[in-house]
Amino acid sequence: MTRKNILVTGGGGFLGSHLCERLLNEGHSVICADNFFTGNKKNIEALMDNRRFELLRHDVTFPLYVEVDEIYNLACPASPVHYQKDPAQTVKTCVHGAINMLGLARRTGAKILQASTSEVYGDPNVHPQVEEYWGNVNPIGERACYDEGKRAAETLFMSYRRQCNLRIKIVRIFNTYGPNMHPNDGRVVSNFILQALRNEPITIYGDGSQTRSFCYCTDLIDAMVRMMNTGDEITGPVNIGNPVEFTMLQLAGLVKELTSSRSELVFKPLPSDDPRQRKPDITKAKQLLGWTPTTPLEEGLKRTIAYFEDLLRSGEA
Ligand code: NAD
Ligand code: UDP
Ligand code: UDP
After folding, report:
1. With the C-alpha atoms ordered 50, 51, 52, 55, is the resulting torsion angle positive or negative?
2. 1: number of Cβ within 10 Å
3. In angstroms, rounded to a whole number, what is the distance separating the alpha carbons of residues 44 and 242?
4. 1, 132, 194, 275: which has the fewest C-beta neighbours closer than 10 Å?
5. Mind giving me the DSSP string for 3-39?
6. Nearest CA residue ID for atom 7, ligand 2
């Protein structure tokens, strides 16, 4: 194997930290660039002693000059609570961040992978979602800063491909969970687990019949790395996620059971533009990457619960 120099933007976040760890374990040198808007140094603490790991405090909306062979562009807040806190900055991170990282890829000749999202499908009219579906996004809604930002980033990636023949890859990530998730990101898995562990009411938005499909983080990272390693003719977009679909009521029940919690369920209003259902069609990922997620929700939840128990014990959540 040849050792590569790899840049991971957003490497201090939930998925980025797992990706940095995986790439270091494969023997590569990793530069992690993060402005720590939602990331946490604790996520990468264990990597800091590794001489092949380098941390840069950097905001991707500004140019970055480093010499690398591959770029994974993950920098962007991912949970609705966080990306709606400063929506203009979210758009800038998606768009200026993509422009700068594509410029970097152009100058260095690096391969570049974009962490896109199932949110490009909006509140989908096609179920399960296939890559050919163009989506149903409200361009002026509260989620638009993220959804449209990520759509514009995909457009930029394809434009640089067509104009400059850049080696690009786009993956559309569906709901992913696991250790290193931010405890206050308001996402359903972290909310339910923390509420259950504290025996506080579990907050179901709407009637809880909406669906999501949850992928465990290391399965997801495996697909991302496989995508980067495909031939230059493969650009994607490729859906990655776990196609097993659950209602939020089912998820709440499972979390309660696994934590032996006394929490009650309480019903709160559904946030605006909250998608009714979401489930990836992963036929392409199976064919192109030879990949399929292997961690069942129950198993992944157990590991995630252990992580949140640790945070509670140490007073960090
Ligand atoms: P996260 O919030 O934990 O990580 C994002 C990281 O990016 C954080 O460390 C944050 O500090 C950093 N960041 C934000 N703005 C930045 C900027 N301007 N410059 C530099 N760093 C910046 O979220 P995550 O769940 O790890 O998501 C990682 C990527 O995957 C995101 O691009 C997200 O859109 C995408 N994604 C995640 C999911 C999921 O379910 N977790 C689903 C779809 C897509
Ligand atoms: N850029 C960067 N690092 C590099 C090269 C470029 O951050 O190593 C940024 C630079 O700010 C530029 C953007 O990427 O504005 C786009 O670069 P590109 O070469 O596509 O276009 P330019 O704007 O330079 O014509
Ligand atoms: N949700 C919920 N209770 C919570 C947090 C979220 O019922 O405490 C719901 C939310 O309305 C959505 C689903 O869970 O229908 C997934 O929400 P999340 O924010 O995790 O991800 P996204 O909506 O981006 O898929």
Report:
1. positive
2. 6
3. 26
4. 1
5. --EEEEETTTSHHHHHHHHHHHHTT-EEEEEE--SS-
6. 63
Peptide bond into 237 cis (omega under 30): yes
Nearest-CA residue for atom 13 of ligand 3: 188
Using the atom order of ligand 2, give the atom closest to the CA of residue 164: 20
For residue 46, the number of C-alpha atoms closer than 13 Å in the C-beta half-sphere is 9
Residue 127 sits at φ, ψ, to 5 deg, of -140, 130
Q: At what angle do helices 297-313 and 188-197 cross, to 10 degrees?
A: 60
**80 CB under 6 A from ligand 3?**
yes
Which residue(s) pair with 56 in the sheet? 33
Distance (Å, whole) CA 304 – CA 309: 9
Mind listing the pLDDT tens digit for each residue in 3-50? 999 999 999 999 999 999 999 999 999 999 999 999 999 999 999 999
Q: Which residues contact 28 (CB under 8 A, 6 or more apart)?
A: 3, 4, 5, 6, 52
